[in-house]
Structures are given as structure tokens and as C-alpha cells.
Task: structure prediction
Amino acid sequence: MELVKKLDTGAIYKKRNGKYGIKNKQNKWVNGDEKVKILLAEGLIKAPVPKAKEEPVEEAPAEETPVEETTEE
Result:
């Protein structure tokens, strides 16, 4: 593992597979949301942007032709 950056709270390492690992001052690995927050703050990863859902296009109702009522006499 390659040391990327030394922090006040620990160190950031880059693993051979390209992923990052963070060890705190107690020499324990940091995981989960805390890891993501640190990597985002250091600019090493980018936050994924959710895809915008396309709203279904509503078709305008076809113009109705008035039907003449015929009366049979």
C-alpha cells in the first residue's frame, strides 16, 4: 500500500487495486460513511450524482368531434 496523505486523525493509503484505505490514530481501519466523508473532504473521490428520472410525457387528448344526436320521428 502506498501512503497518499497523512492526516491529523490518521493516514490515507492507496491499495494495489486502486481503492483507498484509511487508518485512524489507533491503527484501526475506518469504514462506511466516515471513510466516505474523509475521502470526499480530501478530494480523492467524487460523490455520485443521482440520475434524473424522466417524467412520463402525457399525451394531450385528441380533439373530440361533436356528435349530432339524431331523433327519429
Notes: The chain has a mean pLDDT of 84. Helices lie at 32-42. The first strand starts at residue 2 and ends at 6.
